[in-house]
Amino acid sequence: MQDLQFNPARSLEIDIVSDVMCPWCYIGKRRLEKALAALPDIDFDVRWRPFQLDAAIPPEGMDRKEYLKRKFGDSRGGQMYREIVRAGEQEGIAFGFERIARAPNTLDAHRLIRWATTTGHQHEVVEALFIAYFVEGRDIGSRDVLVGIGAAAGMDPELVGRLLEGDADREAVREEVQLAQRMGVSGVPCFILGGRYAVSGAQAPEILADAIRQAMAAPGTSEPAPGPAS
After folding, report:
1. Is there a contact between 196 and 218 (Cβ–Cβ < 8 Å)?
2. Rg for the chain, CA atoms, rounded
């Protein structure tokens, strides 16, 4: 990396394509936070983009044991989740998979994240959704749960409730998911750096930080626009 012309005064947009029922996305969030902390001279505009690992789950969700059996069978799922628990412990995440009773359809959760962007609460909402599902075992497909998460993050609960009762941004979220798929995203998390470079998977903080440095050093990386980031 010594030959790259790195300008620490620049800023970088990072889009995270993610699903809130994906444990590796929660781990990837923690690892990205470590990578960003290691690059204090860069201004980052981090935005969460929707993805659905299983859009076929009914709107009301389904029994999680039945879902795992259908998706993984009896053996593979158990081995995979033991690996996730170990990775989570390294990142300070106390996964409580045994507390999760239902596998949610995450469309409404992504709608909430989308609205949180306009109020400046996106990161708080994403973190709260991960904690609610993976640590507390709450049903993040429940509108009552989503309203509570939005309110705790500083959003207007009455407005969130009314929006969830209707179809606001339902198609917009689906279109974003389809766009990610057309771009070649087939698994999450996927970190898109500066709109040009993609890093797939919950990579180690060192790998993410190195990828950010390369994206910053690449020809054509734009200088930050004047004024506050949107």
Report:
1. yes
2. 18
Q: Kindly state whether residue 140 falls inside one of the protein's structural domains.
A: no
User: CA of 40: how far to CAs of 3, 9, 161, 198, in Å?
Assistant: 21, 10, 38, 21
Structure token digits, residue 54: 């299983």
Per-residue pLDDT of the chain (230 residues; tens, 9 = 90+): 333 344 444 899 999 999 999 999 999 999 999 999 999 999 999 999 999 999 999 999 999 999 988 887 765 566 788 999 999 999 999 999 999 999 999 999 999 999 999 999 999 999 999 999 999 999 999 999 999 999 999 999 999 999 999 999 999 999 999 999 999 999 999 999 999 999 999 999 999 999 999 999 987 654 433 332 32
148 assigned to some structural domain: no
b/e per residue, 129-153, with b = 16+ CB within 10 A? bbbbbbbeebbbbbeebbbbbbeeb
Counts of helices then strands in the chain (DSSP H, E): 9, 6
- Does any domain span residue 171? no
Residue 108 lies in a domain: no
Name the domain count of the chain: 1
